[in-house]
Specification:
The protein is mostly helical. Helix content is 61%, strand content 0%.
């Protein structure tokens, strides 16, 4: 199991990177009060959260008890200490 480094903090830490890049672009593209740039990170949330749920389901079917052990070792899904 890969439970060291970034992958030991979150099971899908690469999804967090995608979300942070989208938030950075939204912040640089307009005023924080503008709604349109914030649709981009919301799109990523709508895309990546269901994908994460599907990934977890498929890994549970494929790895069984090993996946449950991994979930106990790395409890956070995307955002460390939040989700």
């Amino acid at each position: 199991m890969l439970i060291s480094g970034f992958w030991g903090v979150s099971r899908h830490i690469n999804y967090l990177g995608e979300l942070l890049m989208a938030i950075g672009l939204s912040l640089s593209l307009g005023y924080p009060s503008a709604l349109l740039p914030w649709l981009y990170p919301l799109y990523y949330v709508a895309l990546l959260v269901p994908r994460q749920l599907d990934d977890d389901r498929r890994c549970a079917l494929k790895y069984g008890a090993l996946w449950q052990e991994y979930q106990r070792a790395v409890p956070y899904r995307i955002v460390p200490f939040v989700y």
